[in-house]
Amino acid sequence: MDFSDLLGTLAGKLERWLETMVSMLPNMVVAIAIIALAGLLSRYLTSWTERGLRRVVKSPQLVGLIAQIARISVICGGLFIALGVLQLDKTVTSLLAGIGIVGLAVGFAFQDIAANFVSGVLMALRNPFAIGDLVKISEHFGHVQRIDLRATRLTQLSGETVILPNKDVFQSAIINYTETECRRVEVMVGVSYGDDLAKVREIAKGAVEALECRDLEREVELFYTGFGGSSIDFELRFWIREADQGAFLSARSEAIMAIKAAFDANDVTIPFPIRTLDFGIEGGETLREQITGSMGEVRELRRSS
């Protein structure tokens, strides 16, 4: 093939391409209009979605995510329709297949990230706690500082910051102290075996009932729990209308002081624990004999040395 034939073939292809472009020009205009309309519609849809979800969903991250998904879906839908108008159906099929393969590969490569993300979305829908709540998640106990779609940040009562993956949070038992707006305070006490237990019950309950921090709508409860080594033990329970840990500790401290003062005023004894010290004394031998024998052995060792 000489140079003139090559030029003729190239000119023919260019002419056919130009004819095809001219014939497809109306479709191209329609496709561009569809893409522009999809872009404009996606903006309004994003605004409407955010306004509607803010009334139902408390998580701003989840609201933004759903709004962006809606926006991208509208744009992608307009793009696929435009490609169909341009008679590029095979291109649409290839794009969908490519998106599916990429999504599958990303899912396998980032399983933990995807699990944390999905858990964050589900938690945002369920709202097990809010920012500032006092919660206990597994062994972590503190106030919720931040809730993201990937992790939850806690500030423990001792001051440390803990970042928990949402997958672990979602699969763990969560105790929310703030949601109930009240807490029960328990005080464990022991009294002497020689005291009148009915009298002890009245004195202990009366001491706690006088506390200002107590929830007056709930009764004070006292239950004897068992016979200890040096005391008869009981558990005293009362409620407070605050869930804060500081209020809980303060109420328990006031209850302990009130019970101690009431017992002292009414001659109720809180016995000291009894301890038995074993000096290795053999049967039939007194403690004095054991100590005397040990001292004699020490003197003999000193003389021999």
Give a short synopsis of this structure.
The protein is an alpha+beta fold and 305 residues long.
Structural descriptors:
alpha+beta; single chain; Alpha-Beta Plaits; Helix Hairpins; SH3 type barrels; 305 residues; 3 domains
Reported for the largest beta sheet, the result is: 5 strands, antiparallel
Distance between the termini: 121 Å
**CATH arch. level architecture of the largest domain:** Orthogonal Bundle
Rg over CA atoms: 39 Å
Which blocks of ≥5 consecutive residues have pLDDT under 50?
none
CATH class of the largest domain: Mainly Alpha
Number of separate structural domains: 3
The secondary structure category is alpha+beta
What is the chain-wise order of helices and strands?
HHHHEEEEHEHEHEEHH
Strand arrangement, major sheet:
4-3-2-1-5
Number of helices: 9
Helix content: 55-70%
- Kindly estimate the percentage of residues that lie in beta strands according to DSSP: 15-25%
Query: Which topology of the largest domain does CATH recognise?
Result: Helix Hairpins
